[in-house]
Amino acid sequence: MPAHQPTEETRNLVKTWARVGTTQLVIARELGISEDTLSKYYACELADASARGVATVASSLYAKAIAGDTTAMIFFLKTRGRWREKDDVVTDERAREIAERFAALDIVKTLQAQRPSKDQTSTIQ
């Protein structure tokens, strides 16, 4: 089988498919070549097109966020700003720990309430 020869047409096809997220396996199959051959002859097209596709969508998302689209704002901040919604999972053991701490606080508050004030201690002596 003769060695694969990239053409302007196949380079453009690879760019288009990579830009929209088509896997390298599918691109290689469409061109009738192996993934290794695809990587060998089209590495630049694959990398550039993928980056441009992400940049295009990111730019559009950013524009929507700046324009006030709440969903876009939330998505952007969660993915790029590292914001997150944290759901704490409370196990039975953790619930017991929390209950014990609250019980200890109640005991401290009770003892503090029972402690005589400075005015009371000065009149007792």
Dominant shape: elongated
Number of helices: 6
Low-confidence blocks of residues: none
How would you classify the quaternary structure? single chain
> Would you count the extended β strands for me?
0
User: Mind describing the biggest β-sheet?
Assistant: none
Class from helix and strand fractions: mainly alpha
Tell me the distance between the termini: 109 Å
Considering DSSP H and I runs of 4 or more, what fraction of the residues is helical?
over 70%
Task: Chart the SSEs and their pairings.
Elements: H1 8-19, H2 24-31, H3 35-66, H4 70-79, H5 92-114, H6 118-124
Helix pairs in contact: 1-3, 2-3, 3-4
Structural features, described:
- The chain has helices spanning 8-19, 24-31, 35-66, 70-79, 92-114, 118-124.
- It folds into two domains: 8-79, no CATH class; 92-124.
- Helix 2 crosses helix 3 (35-66) and helix 3 (35-66) packs across helix 4 (70-79).
- It is an all-alpha fold and 125 residues long.
- The mean pLDDT is 86.
In short:
The protein has 125 residues and is mainly α. It is built from six helices and no strands. Helix content is 74%, strand content 0%.
Question: What keyword list fits this structure?
Answer:
125 residues; 2 domains; mainly alpha
